[in-house]
Design a protein that fits this description.
This protein has 69 residues and is mostly helical. The chain has 4 helices and 2 strands.
């Protein structure tokens, strides 16, 4: 059971990161590996939570910050 929980947690975190990278690929217009406020504006749902997700408050979202969403 313990192995199942660990494997499940890893699978879920991996899936979140893949989804974040997919979103990044779509929204990252300048291909710098992160999403700016301007790039996020094309996705109203992401734009609404941008400041909350921007953990280091640098004005960009990275794949790891997006994976938290």
């Amino acid at each position: 059971m313990k192995k199942f929980i660990i494997i499940s947690a890893f699978a879920l975190s991996s899936a979140s990161l893949v989804a974040a990278e997919d979103k990044l690929a779509v929204l990252d217009a300048d291909n710098d590996g992160r999403i700016s406020v301007e790039e996020a504006a094309s996705d109203p749902a992401l734009s609404a939570v941008f400041a909350e997700l921007d953990a280091n408050k640098d004005g960009y979202l990275t794949p790891s910050e997006l994976a938290e969403h």
